[in-house]
Amino acid sequence: MTHLLNRRQFLAAASLLPSVKFPSDPRHRLAVATYPFRDVIFSSRKPGAGKLTLQQFAATIHEKFNVYGIEPWSPHFESVESAYVAELAAAFNKARLKVVNIPCDVRVKLCGTAEEREQALATYHRWIDAAVTLGSPSIRVHCPAGPDPADISCAVEGLKALAEYGKSKRIVINLENDNPSSEDPERIVKVIDAAATPYLRSLPDFCNSMLIHNDQDYNARSLAALFPHAYNISHVKDVEFSNGKPYRVDMDRIFAIAKKAHYRGYFSMESESEGDPHESTKLLIGAAVRNLSA
Question: What is d(CA 256, CA 252) in angstroms, rounded to the nearest whole number?
Fold first, then answer.
């Protein structure tokens, strides 16, 4: 009886875990992030005539890049109203694309007043609902700094509440090593460990941590700490620029770190190179296919 009860408890717990069946074919594990195409795609942040809609850009991905994933950046959405998101889902499906993650760059205060926190959660809930419609396994949010970035209690409390809603929809919440002041790899890992939920994970970015220390060994250690906490998404890039200065990484070394961590999720090309993002994205895809095929 005890054994049966334990098995039932195990199966009940397992049924609540994220359960994406990731592809093994290299090109099916790759996605094109729309963020690098800010001058190509119409967005709420950079409006302009003659730009492509998100649907129009999506229709070009398979032919131009020969991959099967898209990572649509939140400002490229016209809204998160259900009718529009359903139209996006139909367009992505027609383009034979899988949504691998939604980076949500929205202005919220998860560590603000009680009212601001509720507003932040409500905003993120709408993006989680959009992820469900689009078949995305996750959204990416920013790790809040709060009054004191050294104090993670507020971040843990807010993100754990958000992850609970994600759990109810089977959508993972990802934290990226992005902002050097509040999203350094060590802080991200501390927050994830303290939250202790499989629905709060890391999004390892190949190059962002170079802006903290221009040291490839530091960057490698950071990614070695992040990849075991990753579930479905990592950002691939070979260079990051700050004040015109390039910070470059050894991509082969990082793919080896991901492999050692038994990472099975998607890799999204988020080129930060100067020049045409189409060409730099193709170069990143080439390097990713070579590493994933080895």
Answer: 6
